[in-house]
Amino acid sequence: MKRRFRTTLFIAVPAALCLLIGTGLWALPSSQTGLESAARPVFAPETAKSPSGSRQETAVKSALPEAQPPASAPALSRRITEYHIGAELSDDASTVTATETVTWTHPGKNPVSDLYFHLYPNAFSSEDTTFMTESGGKLRGDTMPENGFGSMTLTDVRTETGVSLLHRMQYVRPDDGNEDDRTLVKIHLPQPVNGGESVTLKLQFQVALPQIFARMGQSGRFVMAGQWFPKISVYEPAGTRGVKEEGWNLHQYHGNSEFYSDFGIYSVAISVPADYTVAATGFAVKNPKTSGGRKVYQFYADDVHDFAWAASPDFVCAEEAFSSPEVPGVKIKLYLDPLHQDLKERYFQAAEAALSAFSKWYGPYPYTTLSIVVPPLSGNGAGGMEYPTLITAFGAESSNPDTSLERTVIHEIGHQYFYGMVASNEFEEAWLDESFTSYAEDRLMEQEYGVSPNLPLQASLVTSPKPLTLDAWKYGGSDAYTQNVYIRGKLVLKDIEHQVGSKTMDTIMSTYARTYRFRHPSTADFQKIVEIVTRASWQDYFDRYVYGQGAPDFAVENIKKSRDKSGNSESIVTVANKGSFYPGVSVRFTFQDGHAVIKTWDGQGDRTSFKIVSASPLLSAEIDPDHNVVLETKHMNNFRKASLPAAAVSRWTVSLTNIIEAVLGIYGW
């Protein structure tokens, strides 16, 4: 997800400061729904374990469509899950009614008696949910509309043989015990599932769409269905992300957290009013079928870990085929808000640049489609978000936006790699997605558009450094989350690049992305790649700046001036590091005649002193004048004039710091 900052201020400030188908569908014949059954996908598990029970009930017959994938397509992931979903959007676009058949293949060894599902829409069911209490009803500058609540209701849950499991459901709150939170549910099975076996459940559910907020919902005639279906949690075998004992990775939906899912297969049919157009994950299996005032779309996707769709009768649609040496062939599809209909070329150019560069740097884009949805301004809460093969840009605020248009598209396509294919746990290690994507975004924006990031200014925003491996909701608020997960994590990557060189960093990033493609890596896995590529231990560095909250804080503490016996100017300059250890920092000494001398401090000890002798008096001293130490967040004490009293320096520094913090506090979000 892209957290937006006011781009112009990142340029202006430093210059100024001189720095469904559901319940009803199962009962309807295919002639009424327009949905047709087909053969089971060839990559589905060959056998599925059907939990038996003492009381058998008549199974509800499903009219769910099943799409046949290309027979030659190899499996790129383990495909732990398989979803067949039929969804119907109500005529007023306020409700999605759906059926879901999900097959889960046990990736571990120990018997499993419970399945866990994320019911994300319940985060918006009241002001008392965990998401709402933590976020205060605000996210990315967007505010929950008044009385804009939504929810998800499971209306039926059965085994493949028809045994009802509704009475075996229990909401769980492993993170905070909040009884008003219903975003995670446990379903107890009639009999355990052993390692390697599969189990199939049939669900019926209804989603009352919230008014668009936090990535999903309805705004007038626009619908964004993200995190809209019961999604099974991730069961981690021993060794996954370094876990020692296998088990479910279970978390509620929090104000800062995003998502974590297993790879699988999705076959999804979506019924909408006849004048609506649907954009979705994957590719359309057939042309949409219109009947009785309804239109039915059918999509298929494999080797993805989520499925999202958007719908509107107002989309202005365009598409373009693209290929490059690393991208065999992709159909880029645009679903534009009318205000942006004349900007098609800019969207296509940004998407093509991102696909080409990221596929070269991090591995080929393996899918045949990429959809870009541009919401209306009223649907901005759904903007700037990533889903497999589908991204959302920000709602149109003007007919001629600045390069934030391209930046958002590039960032979200970056997530097709870091999140989409390299599927980290965004609950627990969000920096592996956001920081890595932000790093790639900056590199491409500079390469394609000549827009260089102001890293010192961005570093100054990090007022509360925290470990990058904190659970997302433990940062204490959205500001600290953004500072660390988006900015500080990216600065760590830039700092590693500064130490090893850009070519070696390219190798590190490429090796990491290709090694953990279609897997669930951890921070320790990334550290291992850094150490393999550089052939050196980085444990101290990671302990200090990744697992810890370290940040160097260099300061020119004092300058004492005198003259030696020869009449030369003599100065004793004391410099210090009041923060975390950082080796090798330059100090520039500038003299009144205009010449300058650069010396290096190895960083050992808390402070050191330089004796400077020159015919020309010392004018000033500055630590890290080129701002190479990007992890330093406080720069105001890096500079001192030789003739300015310490008390005056202190007052000036504090005053300017307050000005910067005030400006950035108002405009950065």
TrEMBL record:
InterPro entries: M1_LTA4H, Peptidase_M1_dom, Peptidase_M4/M1_CTD_sf. The active site is at 412 (proton acceptor), 486 (proton donor). Residues 45-75 are annotated as: Disordered. Pfam families: Peptidase_M1. Zn(2+) binds at residues 411, 415, 434. Residues 353-535 form the Peptidase M1 membrane alanine aminopeptidase domain. Binds 1 zinc ion per subunit. The keyword Zinc applies. One of its GO terms (molecular function) is metallopeptidase activity. Its cofactor is Zn(2+). This is EnpEP protein. The lineage of its organism: Bacteria, Bacillati, Bacillota, Bacilli, Bacillales.
